[in-house]
């Protein structure tokens, strides 16, 4: 997962998503770099428009409680999405990153 995050960080900073840059981000985070995983990710992202994939990915955002305290339980239940559907949607969004 840290490899995908590294690619997203590079994209956000408008840096090239390549093997050297991904390896640098992973190393800077203090993790061990797997060259095979880096190569696989760069290869998988070669034909992917990351900006379009991000826009197409469903976003599950929890509503922040009001400044006065927590929202009433009835309101909280309305805003919650079914866990299974949210997880499936998130997985579909991640799958789109890999073609």
Automatic annotation (TrEMBL):
<feature type="compositionally biased region" description="Basic and acidic residues">
    <location>
        <begin position="75"/>
        <end position="88"/>
    </location>
</feature>
<comment type="similarity">
    <text>Belongs to the eukaryotic ribosomal protein P1/P2 family.</text>
</comment>
<feature type="region of interest" description="Disordered">
    <location>
        <begin position="72"/>
        <end position="99"/>
    </location>
</feature>
<comment type="subunit">
    <text>Part of the 50S ribosomal subunit. Homodimer, it forms part of the ribosomal stalk which helps the ribosome interact with GTP-bound translation factors. Forms a heptameric L10(L12)2(L12)2(L12)2 complex, where L10 forms an elongated spine to which the L12 dimers bind in a sequential fashion.</text>
</comment>
<dbReference type="GO" id="GO:0006414">
    <property type="term" value="P:translational elongation"/>
</dbReference>
<protein>
    <recommendedName>
        <fullName>Large ribosomal subunit protein P1</fullName>
    </recommendedName>
</protein>
<keyword id="KW-0689">Ribosomal protein</keyword>
<dbReference type="InterPro" id="IPR027534">
    <property type="entry name" value="Ribosomal_P1/P2"/>
</dbReference>
<dbReference type="Pfam" id="PF00428">
    <property type="entry name" value="Ribosomal_60s"/>
</dbReference>
<dbReference type="GO" id="GO:0003735">
    <property type="term" value="F:structural constituent of ribosome"/>
</dbReference>
<dbReference type="GO" id="GO:1990904">
    <property type="term" value="C:ribonucleoprotein complex"/>
</dbReference>
<dbReference type="GO" id="GO:0005840">
    <property type="term" value="C:ribosome"/>
</dbReference>
<dbReference type="InterPro" id="IPR038716">
    <property type="entry name" value="P1/P2_N_sf"/>
</dbReference>
<dbReference type="InterPro" id="IPR022295">
    <property type="entry name" value="Ribosomal_P1_arc"/>
</dbReference>
<keyword id="KW-0687">Ribonucleoprotein</keyword>
<comment type="function">
    <text>Forms part of the ribosomal stalk, playing a central role in the interaction of the ribosome with GTP-bound translation factors.</text>
</comment>
């Amino acid at each position: 997962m840290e490899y995908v995050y590294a690619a997203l960080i590079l994209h956000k900073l408008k840096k090239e998503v390549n093997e050297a840059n991904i390896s640098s981000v992973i190393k800077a985070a203090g993790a061990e770099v797997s060259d095979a995983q880096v190569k696989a990710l760069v290869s998988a992202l070669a034909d992917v428009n990351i900006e379009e994939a991000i826009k197409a990915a469903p976003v599950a955002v929890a509503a922040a409680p009001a400044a006065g305290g927590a929202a009433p339980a009835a309101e909280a239940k309305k805003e919650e999405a079914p866990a299974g559907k949210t997880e499936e949607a998130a997985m579909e969004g991640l799958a789109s990153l890999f073609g």
